[in-house]
Design brief:
- With about 300 residues, this protein is α/β, with parallel strands linked by helices.
- It has two domains: about 130 residues, Response regulator (Rossmann fold), CATH 3.40.50; about 160 residues, no CATH class.
- The chain contains eight helices and ten strands.
- Strands 2-1-3-4-5 form a five-stranded parallel beta sheet, with helices on both faces. A five-stranded antiparallel beta sheet has the order 7-6-10-9-8, with helices on both faces.
Length: about 300
């Protein structure tokens, strides 16, 4: 099946050319002239697009508003999103990346650059989809009963954990918060399964290149955001000590993960430099991100 790409652009001539380019390179494009029209198309599609390419300056609903709407919708907020825009100032580009878009291509653009970005993003989402399927397969063999909590109680079901790989003992749950968790299987088992599935897809030699991955964990009625990193260690088989920092919570969207990734990078920096860090404080910072964004979404709807 050809990858499905949603292209949102108000310039009719450019939209026509993009449609031709994508079709001639074995993609299946669908088009919209603004964010409002794109949301309507998305709601009617049976298949979720593999990628969204969107202009910023558009009538009725611009690219920023469209991206925020996508980020707040669980059906669509893991679709790779690329801004294609004539807004080329460093401030515009920083703002687009700050929102959490996967890439930002400025007009006029080289066709080869666009195709390279599309190819890379689709390859990545294919790996993540494979990872999700593996996660579903692994957790479906375990009898788990977890009730989805109200948003206000999300913190009670949110868990931050650190898993470290050891050549002698395998995956080791190094620390987690809260100490007690309302899952019917142990956090150690959850952490080990997630790390094992990730290494089966990426391989131990490339696992730390995965950086951040947002996954559905349907059997836990939750999502997991996994961040992989390492530091040099000659005693380890791969010449590095590998670890996974993860957050598990009912409501994590793509928009959240950019801010969470910055927190994870801070934790990772402390791990690499063997500095003390308070896991409860980081847990509270992440909870604040999730609850603040949820409140903001409700105010905007």
């Amino acid at each position: 099946m050809k990858p499905l790409i949603l292209v949102v652009e108000d310039n009719v001539d450019l939209l026509y050319n993009l449609n031709l380019v994508l079709k001639s390179n074995n993609y299946n494009p669908i088009t919209a002239k603004n964010g409002k029209e794109a949301l309507k198309i998305l709601s009617e599609l049976e298949q979720v697009p593999d990628l969204i390419v969107s202009d910023i300056m558009m009538p009725e609903m611009d690219g920023y508003e469209f991206f925020r709407a996508i980020s707040n919708e669980s059906r669509w907020n893991r679709i790779p999103f690329v801004f294609l825009s004539a807004r080329t100032t460093p401030k515009d580009i920083r703002f687009g990346k700050m929102l959490g878009v996967d890439d930002y291509l400025t007009k006029p653009f080289d066709e080869k650059d666009l195709l390279a970005i599309i190819s890379g993003k689709i390859s990545r989402i294919n790996r993540i989809n494979t990872l999700n399927n593996k996660v579903d397969e692994v957790f479906s063999t375990i009898n788990i009963e977890v009730e989805i909590p109200p948003t206000s109680e999300q913190g009670e079901f949110m868990c931050l954990l650190l898993t470290i790989w050891d050549d002698k003992f395998g995956h080791q749950l190094n620390r987690h918060y809260p100490i007690e968790k309302n899952f019917s299987i142990s956090l150690n088992d959850i952490a080990n399964q997630l790390f094992t599935v990730a290494t089966s897809i990426y391989g131990h030699d490339k696992i730390t290149k995965a950086e951040g991955v947002l996954l559905n964990i349907d059997n836990l009625n939750s999502r997991g955001y996994l961040f992989f990193d390492s530091y040099p260690d000659k005693e380890e088989r791969f010449g590095e000590k590998q670890y996974m920092i993860a957050i598990i919570a009912p409501l994590i969207n793509y928009f959240h993960t950019l801010k969470i990734k910055n927190i994870f990078a801070d934790i990772s920096n402390k791990i690499k430099n063997k500095l003390n860090w308070n896991i409860e404080e980081y847990w509270k910072r992440i909870l604040d991100i999730l609850l603040t964004e949820t409140i903001q979404i409700k105010r905007n709807t």
